[in-house]
Specification:
Elements: H1 6-12, E1 26-33, E2 36-48, E3 51-64, E4 67-79, E5 85-92, E6 98-104, E7 111-116, E8 122-125, H2 134-147, E9 151-157, E10 162-173, E11 183-191, E12 194-203, E13 207-215, E14 218-224, H3 237-240, E15 244-246, E16 258-265, E17 277-281, E18 284-288, H4 295-299, H5 327-335, H6 343-357, E19 360-361, H7 370-375, E20 378-379, H8 381-394, E21 399-408, E22 411-422, E23 425-429, E24 442-448, H9 458-464, E25 468-472, E26 481-483, E27 486-489, E28 492-496, E29 501-504, E30 507-510, E31 514-519, E32 529-532, E33 538-542, E34 545-551, E35 554-559, H10 563-572, E36 573-576
Helix pairs in contact: 6-8
């Protein structure tokens, strides 16, 4: 699963978003995530003939599966004598940075002109009362500490285009080493839709000194480098644990057409409702696979010419999906869409193409843009998703990203998939697993047009299910049973002539030793060759595993088989639905 944006993580702690450099030249902060030192930030203020310049940089380095994930954000803000402000920024979430600039004028205080590299400028409406210049925010913090009064500050992060706020009440004097006048504040900090508890230590002379907050239950600390270091506690495993939840196993999980699930945890969840996710009351939801496309849906052509207003945001090039980049010309030649292809045909073709294009299914990539993935085919669900959105938009199919959680194997995890507008509905597909339509057991938290970095919403997705878990209700895997050479599931029967099935401890096996599960087809990086049984059933075989074609774009994985056993299975396998 993908890592949440590091810039958002840091900025929710208000280390750089809502606090400007003090009056001294440079201040350096150290940052800890889940008890390990994982980054820092530097802020520098200079005054010159052109105005006041604030330069900031923050970085994070985490390890996942033994591989470092490094993310970096740099920003320069210049306030000129006439009061106008310009920003330049560079956000590195993967190998290729996203760069842009913005400008603000006191003549239009509610507007920010923003432009990413290679994209046209657009106007961003600032929330009323937004304090945009970081130096003004710092003055407000110092004054609040001096007067011991509440802090209510609205700000805006130019790099991620997210409104933010601090709402803090003074707790009282709380000196820190070297800062006897420090005042502690407690309250809430928000970044976009996400709010969290926050404590801050602020000096009337020096400004912000330290902040302590949490992200998905994980404590994060940002503090001046001259303060005593935080004690080391858990390792990096703790950072990723909240993004994974265990599930009772089900051998046919990707094929399940419908499942009722129950939330067991804190609070009442208000999730978006659609045909695939229907609230049942009492924190229960009925999750369904999308109904097949029919009739006019199957015949609908892609958009040609000027799009309808409702489609415009979902056909636009964005920082994460710059499909006008020349690299997409070569990618489309490989895709080779047939002339006159419908939206449905393009969606199916693009989903399979993206699954095959990203040969390196690398779950340690931070968050690469579609243009980077087009050049460097590696990544996890986010890279599959942004590339599919970019390709579909280039071909005239309105598309958007979806953020949520998906059930695969024996667990649930943070996930990113895609919806394409076909007919009157948004049709879900999952290029990470080559699923058209996407599997049923997934919890949708929200959608994104990928218009800006903050629109993706990873931070909200990671924290939503922190204090609980989802439980599939009966029959779930209880519907699986075996009888001789046939295994049964909900609306499914698998017969393997001459073999016997066993069903024990949530594991389905043939002849007691070949584990059998529904699975995506093998990706291009897996060395396999195509086999075909006497009855015409195909299968991919390699490394002691067989992926047998079960029809309807679905595959049955049989492990620990020889080539001779694979041929016998293809000869005798029957799939009935």
């Amino acid at each position: 699963m993908a890592v949440p944006f590091r810039p958002i993580l840091a900025l929710t702690l208000a280390a750089a978003l809502l606090a400007a450099p003090p009056s001294t030249e440079t201040h350096t902060f150290r940052e800890w995530i889940a008890g390990q030192e994982a980054g820092g930030s530097v802020r520098k203020l200079t005054r010159g003939p052109e105005g006041v310049r604030i330069e900031s940089r923050e970085w994070t380095r985490l390890e996942r599966m033994g591989v470092p994930i490094v993310q970096d954000l740099s920003e320069t803000a210049l306030k000129r004598p006439d009061g106008s402000i310009t920003f330049t920024f560079r956000v590195s979430l993967s190998q290729e940075p996203l760069e842009g600039q913005a400008s603000w004028s006191p003549a239009a205080p509610g507007k920010l002109q923003l432009a990413y590299r290679n994209l046209p400028s657009r106007t961003v409406d600032l929330p009323p009362g937004t304090v945009l210049w970081p130096g003004d925010v710092d003055d407000l913090l110092k004054a609040a500490a001096a007067d011991r009064r509440p802090i209510h500050v609205k700000s805006f992060n130019v790099s991620t285009q997210q409104p933010s706020a601090l709402d803090l009440e003074p707790v009282g004097p709380d000196p820190l080493p070297g800062y006897p006048g420090a005042v502690r504040f407690r309250g809430k900090a928000s970044e976009g839709p996400m709010a969290q508890d926050m404590e801050m230590w602020i000096s009337p002379q020096e400004g912000d000194l330290k902040s302590v907050g949490s992200f998905a239950g994980i404590v994060m600390v940002s503090q001046r480098e001259d303060l005593p270091a935080q004690p080391a506690t858990k390792g990096d495993k703790a950072f990723f644990e909240p993004t994974l939840k265990a599930l009772p196993p089900h051998p046919f999980l990707p094929w399940v057409r419908e499942v009722a699930v129950r939330w067991e945890g804190k609070g009442t969840l208000d999730l978006p409702a659609d045909a695939q996710q229907r609230p049942q009351g009492g924190n229960r939801f009925l999750l369904s696979r999308a109904a097949p496309l029919t009739g006019a849906e199957l015949a609908e052509p892609p958009v040609k010419g000027a799009p309808a207003e409702e489609d415009r945001p979902f056909l636009a090039a964005t920082p994460l999906a710059q499909f006008g980049d020349p690299v997409f010309d070569g990618l489309l030649k490989r895709l080779d869409p047939p002339p006159g292809a419908t939206r449905a045909e393009l969606v199916k073709r693009v989903t399979a193409f993206v699954y095959d294009w990203i040969r390196d299914k690398d779950y340690t990539v931070g968050f690469a843009s579609a243009q980077e993935v087009a050049r460097n085919p590696r990544g996890d669900c986010t890279e599959h998703g942004v590339l599919e959105v970019a390709l579909l938009r280039r071909l005239g199919v309105p598309a958007r990203g979806v953020v949520g959680w998906v059930a695969m194997g024996d667990g649930m995890g943070l996930h990113f998939w895609v919806e394409a507008r076909i007919g009157a509905r948004w049709f879900p597909v999952d290029p990470t697993f080559d699923m058209v339509p996407a599997s049923a057991f997934r919890l949708k938290l929200g959608t994104t047009d990928l218009a800006d970095l903050g629109a993706v919403g990873w931070e909200n997705a990671a924290s939503t299910f922190q204090d609980g878990t989802w439980v599939p209700e009966a029959p779930w895997a209880d519907a699986v049973r075996v009888q001789g050479d046939t295994a049964f599931g909900q609306g499914l029967a698998l017969r393997a002539e001459g073999a016997s099935w066993t069903w024990r401890g949530g594991r389905l096996a043939l002849d007691g030793r070949h584990r059998v599960t529904a699975a995506p087809r093998p990706g291009p990086a897996i060395p396999v060759r195509l086999l075909q049984g006497r009855g015409g059933r195909r299968g991919w075989f390699g490394s002691g595993s067989l992926w047998a074609d079960a029809g309807a774009g679905e595959w049955l994985l049989v492990e620990r088989v020889t080539e001779a056993e694979a041929f016998r299975l293809l000869d005798g396998l029957e799939v009935r639905r």
